[in-house]
Structures are given as structure tokens and as C-alpha cells.
Amino acid sequence: MLLAVLVLGGCGVISRPAWQSEVMECASTATITDYQEVHQGWEKSQFEVAYVGPPSDDPMELVQAPGMRLEKADGSIGRDVFLAEGSIRGENSRCLVYLSRLDIGPARSEYLNIDENMAAEIARGEREVLELSFIRYRE
Question: Tens digits of per-residue pLDDT, 72-93?
């Protein structure tokens, strides 16, 4: 009986849908120069990666990824500032990418794994939080 459970349990391996793998491939190629990754996770159908680093007048110039194109965008999403949008074309994937500057409070700091010292530096304007959001691009 135990053997049957182990064998059947091995068949129940949950695999990630192909579109999620494509999005994660895009995200894995992107970095923000001089910024530390503090959080990554799914928010509905988009994969978000948050970074903390020194304030920048042009954060779009700090974003690096092979095959990426970004264009400046202006706007806001609630308290966050929408900075750029574009796309990444990977070896096996293509994604839309969005760059935002996040306005964080205590609850969001905890969610993003930002400790009290880092949150205080952000509040004093010594650091900022940038987020890259990735969505599968369908042609």
C-alpha cells in the first residue's frame, strides 16, 4: 500500500504552464544595475520583481536585458509611478515588460521583504523601490 502511494504521488508532480515558464524566462534575463532584488512573485497573470537601490533620475537606463526595448511612459497606478513599457524577446519567449516606481507603506514593505532599516532609508529618500512586471506577449 505504501509503495502504491509513493508511485502515485510521483505521478502527481505539478508542472508550471508553458506560458508561466515563458514569462519567468523573460524575467530571469532582466536586471536593474546597482539595485538589489527583494521580491518576486505572481500577481494574477503577471510576474513581478521588485528591486531596491539608490534614487535615479532615469531608472529606464539602468534596466538591462538581452533583446529588450523600453519606451518612456508617464502615468500612475494608484500611488505608484509608471515609468516605461516595452518588450523582451528571449530565446523561447516574448514578454511585455513594465517599469514602475513603487510608493510603499508598512504593509507593502512586509510583502516585498523590505526590512525596517531599508524602509527607513526609502522614507528618507536614500533608496527607492522599482518594479519590473512581465506579461506573456501573444502575437
Answer: 987 877 788 999 999 998 677 7
The answer to whether 82 touches 75, Cβ cutoff 8 Å, is yes
Q: Is 30 helix (H, G, I), strand (E, B) or coil?
A: coil
DSSP letter for each residue of 5-68: HHHHHHHTPPPPPHHHHHHHHHHHH-EETT-EEEEEEEETTEEEEEEEES--S-GGGGEE-TTE
The mean of the pLDDT values for the chain is 83
- Spatial CB neighbours of 38, under 8 Å, sequence gap ≥ 6: 50, 51, 52, 112, 113, 114, 118, 129
Residue 17 dihedral angles phi and psi, to the nearest 5°: -60, 150
Q: Return left, alpha or beta for 75; rule: phi > 0 is left, psi -120 to 50 is alpha, else beta.
A: left
pTM given for the model: 0.82
